[in-house]
Amino acid sequence: MEQPPIFSATLGLSPPWHIRSMSFSKEERRVDIDIDFANGSTFTCPICGEDVPVCKTENETWHHHDFFLFIAYLHARVPVVRCFSCGMNAVKRPWALGSEFTFVKEA
Questions:
Q1: pTM of the predicted model over 0.70
Q2: What is the dihedral of CA 79, 35, 17, 49, to 10 degrees?
Q3: Phi, psi of 28, deg, nearest 5
Q4: How does DSSP assign 8-36, residue by residue?
Q5: β-bridge partners, 31
Q6: With 41 labelled, which of 27, 51, 67, 77 sits at a CA distance of 20 to 30 A?
Q7: Distance between CA 35 and CA 3 in Å, rounded?
Q8: C-alpha atoms less than 13 angstroms from C-alpha of 69 in its C-beta half-sphere
Q9: What residues contact 20, with CB distance under 8 A and at least 6 apart?
C-alpha cells in the first residue's frame, strides 16, 4: 500500500524515521503501520541531546482507537542508543509526543 505523506506527518516522522509498510482492512476498520529507521542512523540521546549511534533495537506496538476513524496499530523498531555520558537509553518516539497512541507491548 502506498503511504500518503499525511501519515508520516501526522505521526511526526522525519528522517531517519519512515513508514516501512502499511496494511489496511476496511472490514475491520483497522490500519497497521510498520515504522522503521535507516540502518546506520544516529539519534539524539534523550538525556543530554548528543547525536549517538544505535547499539540495539526493541520492537514495540502502539495503539490508537481513532486514527483517521480507524483503529490503528503501530509496530516499530525502536533504537536504543549508547551515549558515552548517559549510558544506554531508548530514543524518544515521535508518535508518542502529545498523541493518543498508547504503548501496548514489545512485539
A1: yes
A2: -40
A3: -90, -5
A4: HHHHT--TTEEEEEEEEETTTTEEEEEEE
A5: 24, 72
A6: 67
A7: 12
A8: 2
A9: 34, 35, 36
CA distance 102 to 88: 23
Cell 490500519 found at: 31
* Cell triple for 67: 486514527
Amino acid 59 reads N
Type of residue at 104: V
- Sequence-distant (6+) residues with CB within 8 A of 31 are 22, 23, 24, 25, 67, 68, 70, 71, 72, 73
The position carrying cell 500518503 is 4
Q: Give the integer Cα–Cα distance in Å for 86 and 26.
A: 45
Q: Tell me the per-residue pLDDT of 58-75, one tens digit each, with 9 for 90 and over.
A: 999 999 988 888 899 999
